[in-house]
């Protein structure tokens, strides 16, 4: 395992210390070393925004704490949910009396721990509502789309909700726009090679040379199918079809797009892929609003890419345009 | 070779098309498809700023074209210099009558082609001066430091010169601050695994499992030595020593720092490494001003990291604080 690490069991703690030192606007919560928060939070008269999840997806989730973005995140070990206590501490640390919105991705552990933490807050008189991202079209059929996992679509959710909260919106208004991004967002991943969890020390799945896994999950969950590695153009075509068909996007509609690397994919190739994705959308007469290409939600050192689309309207367009400043996204 | 690519021989063109589509402020020069420029350039009354070099280092060099950053770049094939004609076309496309500064990294091909292009411009009455980055301490001994290669230190040079040019400085003033960043900047790389040039299809060097190459170059040039893979803390100690000793940084001086991944290194590990680098600098009573951690100058899919330090003074501090907006860096 070729890694920059001291002890694999403390890689998350060491990363968090590094982030706290590198980013003066952030701090590790003194009561819980698995919560990273904006120093400025709680912000008076603003709904608190929290996310959380397993580590290994950097810059998610920590990297989206920032000005007019998230106020805090609960940080789990690599690929595993933070405990309920971490979500609870994150919620309590950012509540200014206006309630807290928890915006996270749909995984069993996160779901369970968020719900426990929400109940714990209720006992303290702090209202927490939540929205669960379910953008990964490969993780469950359309008929059971509420069972789908959340992947890079969270970036749109955090940006939109962060902007709305910064405008003084109520908790219900923040929850409404966050849920709207979930309803309007779809993602699909393609994996070209595996990733290695530091504490395990060997790849947690395998993709043969010359093959690709279409629809792979962010932790290596099996995709829709394994097939021969295609050209970027053909991969782009399949990825666009998967998300556009599922969201039922029609000609003349407008999308915002994220192409996120999964960790080990050269930036050069993300733009090669985006070039073909854009051509494919153009061929369908679909308009493109915002475009993000880079490492937005990763899976350790997995080689692969995710395509995320969000159907736009005037409200979402305006909220994406609002100034924001975080490690993972600046507008 | 597990890659998102159509034809390896056209990967650079495809990437450039993708970037042009994703970034509305940029355009491929109509006369030369290996030049990317800011649409707004040439900017009246401003010195034009150009860089260039081989591809495969994304977001360098293209990603530093932007508002108050570079005005254009000449784009070479993977790991090879752009031809003189590309530098010439880049220079001519951004000159507003105030001259052009070419700020590039020290490699034989780039040196030769920049100098030819400078002469070609002179024939047209356009003045171009240049500064050559030589930050890689491993590539030549201190006695012959003018022979050293340029690596991630270019980011500081482009940022500082971009800010200075945006303030209406003359060509000589821009050249002065760019040269100052070179004089004050040192870098060192550590490689944990090789990279693969798409048109070649197999790794262009090899690092054994359990080993690391200290001082590796950005194209896999042999480093100072191969040794057993150390802990992040020990690697950080060696990296800090290499650059701090070479620059003769003393206690109570102030540095700005870049920790750049080389392409395939998880972001998590870059922060683990930064945590130890910061501790090492603290132990030497060295102050830290700006910190950048991420993929700033890469080498395709190489697993490794570079540490860059720049000795700060009031002028450099003020120029690093000036607003800037590019794919690779936003302030």
UniProtKB/TrEMBL annotation, chains A, B:
GO BP terms: glycerol catabolic process
Keyword field: Kinase, Transferase
Signal peptide (residue range): none
Pfam families: Dak1
Origin: domain of life: Bacteria
DhaK domain segment(s): 7-329
A molecular function (GO) term: glycerone kinase activity
GO CC terms, sorted: cytosol
Keyword Disulfide bond: no
Protein name: Dihydroxyacetone kinase DhaK subunit
Species per Swiss-Prot/TrEMBL record: Breznakia blatticola
């Amino acid at each position: 395992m070729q890694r920059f690490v001291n002890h694999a069991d403390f890689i998350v703690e060491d990363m968090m210390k590094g982030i706290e030192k590198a980013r003066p606007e952030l701090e590790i919560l003194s009561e819980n070393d698995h919560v990273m928060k904006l120093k400025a939070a709680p912000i008076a008269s603003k709904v608190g925004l929290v996310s959380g999840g397993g580590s290994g997806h950097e810059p998610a989730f920590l990297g989206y704490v920032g000005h007019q973005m998230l106020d805090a995140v609960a940080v789990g070990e690599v690929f595993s949910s933070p405990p309920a206590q971490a979500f609870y501490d994150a919620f309590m640390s950012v509540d200014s009396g206006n309630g807290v919105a928890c915006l996270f991705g749909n995984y069993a552990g996160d779901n369970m721990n968020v719900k426990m933490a929400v109940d714990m807050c209720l006992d303290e008189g702090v209202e927490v509502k939540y929205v669960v991202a379910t953008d990964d079209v490969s993780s469950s059929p359309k008929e059971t789309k509420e069972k789908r996992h959340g992947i890079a679509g969270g970036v749109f959710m955090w940006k939109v909700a962060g902007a709305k909260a910064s405008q003084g919106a109520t908790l219900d208004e923040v929850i409404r726009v966050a849920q709207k991004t979930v309803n309007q967002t779809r993602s699909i991943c393609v994996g070209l090679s595996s990733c290695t969890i530091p504490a395990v020390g060997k790849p947690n799945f395998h993709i043969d040379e010359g093959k690709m896994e279409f629809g792979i999950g962010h932790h290596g969950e099996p995709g829709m199918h394994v097939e021969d590695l295609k050209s970027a153009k053909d991969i782009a075509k399949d990825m666009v079809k998967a998300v556009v068909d599922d969201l039922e996007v029609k000609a003349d509609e407008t999308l915002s797009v994220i192409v996120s690397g999964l960790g080990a994919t050269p930036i050069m190739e993300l733009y090669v892929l985006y070039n073909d994705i854009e051509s494919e959308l153009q061929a369908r007469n679909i308009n493109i609003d915002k475009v993000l290409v880079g490492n937005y939600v990763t899976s350790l050192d997995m080689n692969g890419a995710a395509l995320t689309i969000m159907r736009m309207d005037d409200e979402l367009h305006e909220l994406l345009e609002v100034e924001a400043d975080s490690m993972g996204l600046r507008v």
